[in-house]
Write a structure and sequence with these properties.
alpha/beta; TIM Barrel; single chain; eight-stranded parallel barrel
Length: 221
Amino acid sequence: MDERKILGHVDHTLLTQTATWEEIRQICDDAIAYGTASVCIPPSYVKQAKEYVEDKMAVCTVIGFPNGYMTTAVKEFETKDALANGADEIDMVINIGWVKDGKFDSIEEEIRTLKAACGDKILKVIIETCLLTEEEKVKMCQAVTNAGADYIKTSTGFSTAGATFEDIKLFSENIGQGVKIKAAGGISSMDDAEKFLNLGADRLGTSRIIKLVKSEHAEGY
């Protein structure tokens, strides 16, 4: 697969606790230069980043991050605040405790509430696959589909593991029509990125791919 095509599926991501505006500005510049799908950044930088990139790049941010156990009302407020600040895409974290309690109706309703807040903006649902059983992953595919979200996403990158090829295959076999897949966490090579896309992923959450490309094209792209 062509390198530029792969980069067009990347959400260029910086979500570390120590992220500074200078670092956020740099990934915005890189995202524009290399033609990524979006930049995924902390909510506190959304307004500044959107003013900086204007319409040259989509700005994505995270809600209920990274643990997902905030109340639905808090997540809804976070979502509306992020959108008011200029966010184009929202990546929400589910309440994983609710999964363990079997409260899939509550999870569906929460996703539906946030999708209503998003309107025509993209909503991605992070289910943190490394903490779930196979049965729970399948049920989350169904919940995300039923709630009308745009994407199901593997991982926050802040738990015990990131995306796996097996999980992308599982998603592909169990999501409904119209739901896309985002693989995130631990994607560190073009070969892996291409394999995730070939298995059915539409987005890749990573910062390493751009670093790799920059090192290989040090004199320009």
